[in-house]
Amino acid sequence: MDLKSFQIKAAWCTSPHQTGVGIWQAGQGPAADEHNAIYLMTGNYGDSVPPHAGDFPQSLVKLEYSMAADGSAKLVPSRGSHHSRDFRRNPTGDDDFQDYDLGSAGPVPLPGMGLVVGAGKDGVVYVLDQDNAKFGQGSDYSKLKQPPIFFTYFPGFGIDASNVANLDHLFDGKTHHLHASPAFWNSPAARPHAVLLGRERVPAGVDDRRFGQDQFVAKSAEIASAGMGGKGGMPGGFLAITSNGATPNTGIVWATAPVSRDANKFVVEGILRAYDASNLDVHPNADGTPRLRLLWDSTHIPGNTFDFSKFCPPVAVDGRVLVPTYSGRVDVYSLVAPPDGLLPTNANLAPGDDED
Q1: Is pTM, for the whole model, over 0.70?
Q2: Hey, which end of the chain has fewer CB within 10 Å, N or C?
Q3: 306 vs 26, 197, 267, CA distance in Å?
Q4: Element holding 111 (H helix, E strand)
Q5: Are 256 and 313 in contact (CB under 8 A)?
Q6: 71 φψ region: left (φ > 0), alpha (ψ -120 to 50), beta (else)
Q7: pLDDT tens digit string along 84-135?
Q8: Residue 174's closest CA among 241, 95, 287?
């Protein structure tokens, strides 16, 4: 779209030969890197068939804009990496695994690192090199910066996420979808962080600048749609990260999530939580994994409740956090730092209690 004339200059079709292959990304938009390339992830075909040449189902796609001498323009997919092919998956059993969109969330290029990361309904994160020759094509996992890994949950050691058969299971009896794009923060005191929020907890990963290796760091103790039976609640939570510039120990991960019940089928109560992006909790989780340090949540404001708005992340701007709701309003939160400069916390207070 030309912003001066508001005319469409170029368009691109994900699947000229078949139905489906939508770019839905649970409401998250396409992303761009510093070189103006566009990244997006697609859903599956309407039917479970092998991909046709020129179609991009279940793909993390890099698009580049080019203009000819006559002024005409086009969007060209430089590469398409098909990470999850439904036609190879089990349509029966615990779930219909032929309906596990890679594009249930959006990808994020990591600034200054030459990498792009993305994950979908399988909760498996893929790390790719932005360079066209290394970006990947088809299911060539050798093009990945590292082997794919389970990220929104941990199914146990020795389970290879690049083996499609290993994805056709409901580990712990739950689905572990990702419906929010990863959030990224270049911490001044540590290595850059990529954070995801799946159907249950907020897991944090860290990316090594030298090798582009993503690894698990910690996860939250809090659960979205807590207490849900069966396959769990929907849709999980949505993230934003803020910091006071490059000032150490000021990074905060903001996460909205449904408190309980299934927000995909019902209007349910939501919550805004704030986690320390720099320092982990001194106490591990019950399963022994490192725990994200909870700083605050919105229930500590007396009488504060709101209806959760699915697929809508919090927005941070000018020292405030804006939270869209299904309550007919946008809630605005602001942070007042204490004189000693330490991050405030009331995470140990009961809901409705006042801070000292």
Answers
A1: yes
A2: C
A3: 21, 20, 10
A4: none
A5: yes
A6: left
A7: 777 888 888 888 888 888 888 899 888 878 888 888 888 888 888 888 777 7
A8: 95
